[in-house]
Structures are given as structure tokens and as C-alpha cells.
Amino acid sequence: MDPDTDAAAETAQNVVDSVSSWHHGSEEEHVKEALSEGLDGAGVKVSSDDVQQLARDIKESEGEGAPDVSEGIATPADE
User: Which of 10-14, 37-41, 70-74 has the least mean pLDDT?
Assistant: First the structure.
């Protein structure tokens, strides 16, 4: 993986960790919106299907920890 993609994956994981911490008890749609806003604000691009899956995983985790961002799903937004 190139350094930009590594940085995007790390940034995406930080967003997922934060959203999971603050919104795990929220409705799935609210979690998805928080993820999308956080990823956009961080300059990271993740497909809508992957954002939906991450939101589902956060909701299902019930506060037991954030899901891992799979390798390759996050890219810098300017690519």
C-alpha cells in the first residue's frame, strides 16, 4: 500500500472509533450520517456501501468496540 492510502485507512479508523464511541446507541441512519460527515471532514473517501456496513457494524457492536476498517476501503478524497 502506498503512504497516502495507509494514511487514509488510519484516518478512516480514527473516524470510525470516534463515531463508535459517541453514537453506538444511536439509530443506524444517524450513525451512517455521522460517519459520512466525519469521513468527508477528514478528507477520506469510502464508498456508500462500506459506510453503510460500518454503520451496521457499529450499531451491532453495542459499545463493545469499534469495527476495523478493512484494508483498501479508504482512499484520500482527492484521488
Answer: 70-74
CB 54 within 8 A of CB 35: yes
Sequence-separated contacts (24+) of 22-25 with Cβ below 8 Å: 23/58, 24/58, 24/59, 24/61, 24/62, 24/63, 25/62, 25/63
pTM comes to 0.87
CB 52 within 8 A of CB 32: yes
Which DSSP helix (H) or strand (E) runs through 63? Answer: none
Structure letter (DSSP) for residue 73: S
Please say if the pLDDT value at position 25 is more than 90: no
Burial class (CB in 10 A: 0-12, 13-18, 19+), 78: exposed
Measure CA 77 to chain center.
14
- pLDDT tens sequence across 41-50: 999 999 999 9
